[in-house]
């Protein structure tokens, strides 16, 4: 079975997420900071009357923020309700998104790839600067490698960090 993967850069590293999880890519960002929020939680924004929680993926993945902000975009994720049909049709497995709209701040958009499931390799056990649980797999695209993120695990880490910060 083939999948489409939205790819994007954080720094010089190419990442991807399943396109079925992406609602849209948004360019114009006016983010309202949340007092005493963890560093990865940039704030909230109004997207056509809906509140979006904005998460900085660089901070979540322990990476330095990009200094060139001109290419930055928000990858707006779908909600649990919006992906329900894909789960019911077995197009998505083991994906759990929340009821709220979440946007991942990324450094630069790249492309959409179509790959077969067999082309997605397991993550190597020796990945140093990333928590290997957040990596669903690795995709070879010519000389480039795409790190396919497990969005469910990333969101769990974000929510756990927010709860820990709240309890301190």
UniProtKB/TrEMBL annotation:
GO term, biological process aspect, one: chemotaxis
Domain CheW-like per the UniProt entry, residue ranges: 2-160
Question: Which superkingdom does the taxonomy of this entry point to?
Answer: Bacteria
| InterPro entries named in the record | CheW (IPR039315), CheW-like_dom_sf (IPR036061), CheW-lke_dom (IPR002545)
Q: Name one GO cellular component term.
A: cytosol
Give the protein's recorded name: Chemotaxis protein CheW
